[in-house]
Amino acid sequence: MQRTLLVTGAAGMLGRFLLRRPPEGWALRLSDVAVPEAAPGEDWRQLDVTDPVATAAACDGVDAVLHLGGVANNLAATRDRLIPVNVGGTRNVLDAATAAGVRRVLLASSNHAVGFHRRPPGGRPLPDDVACRPDSLYGVTKAAMESLGGFYADRYGTEVVLLRIGSCFERPTSARMLATWLSPGDFCRLVGAALRAPVTGCVPVWGVSANTRRWWSTEGGDALGYHPRDDAEAFAAEVPPEPAEQVPAAETVGGSFPAGTR
């Protein structure tokens, strides 16, 4: 029996990646503030997650939610929207999922929720569940999203997976991304694993590919059955070297964010 996955923010880049490779056994209910022209067989709905009534309607009858909707940058032009959309919108999604009896919610968090953490000494990998240390106001909203996920897991028994996404693009374009890249294919594999795996409580997992230069743990992904296949090293010859003044930023999870944002 096919189940239904509500995807918020589905018109964005990650949503478009998922459309190419939807999780097996799931029908996608796609939603965004601005709805694109639908291809045959696509189910699109207009949704602003800051509207609790509309969010409740979108959650009605679904089996799980992938919450990608939000403001995805830290620019001054959008900063006033970060908290209402990323925090208030996440609360509305979790409220609506709870009211609709939806058990599994995947929240698109970010490496910037923990961006002030540095590379551990001795080559040890950074754990999936490292505590939040946001590196920007954007990172603060992602840390708040994670806290909301933990609260709803504890209070209502919602099964929450926090996807701590690295750098999800078609290909890596910087030296940092050789460590933090999450390929489109691996993003879709991560979503599929997060939907299939048994989950208790609120579980954080790094959203990163099988990169040779990766220094984030694989344990969270292993526990979910997430097995990335792609390696940014395949693109290393095409990536320009990091300017000397930016090399220290490679030691922090958030890259240049800790040094360059307020």
From TrEMBL:
Domain NAD-dependent epimerase/dehydratase: 6-168
Region of interest (Disordered), ranges: 240-262
Keywords: NAD, Oxidoreductase
Residue stretches of biased makeup (Low complexity): 240-251
Tagged with keyword Nucleotide-binding: no
Listed Pfam families: Epimerase (PF01370)
InterPro entries according to UniProt: Epimerase_deHydtase (IPR001509), NAD(P)-bd_dom_sf (IPR036291), Sc_DH/Rdtase_CS (IPR020904)
GO molecular function list: oxidoreductase activity
UniProt keyword Cytoplasm present: no
Family according to the record: Belongs to the NAD(P)-dependent epimerase/dehydratase family.
Protein name per the record: Nucleoside-diphosphate-sugar epimerase
Organism in which the protein naturally occurs: Actinacidiphila paucisporea
Top-level taxonomy: Bacteria, Bacillati, Actinomycetota, Actinomycetes, Kitasatosporales
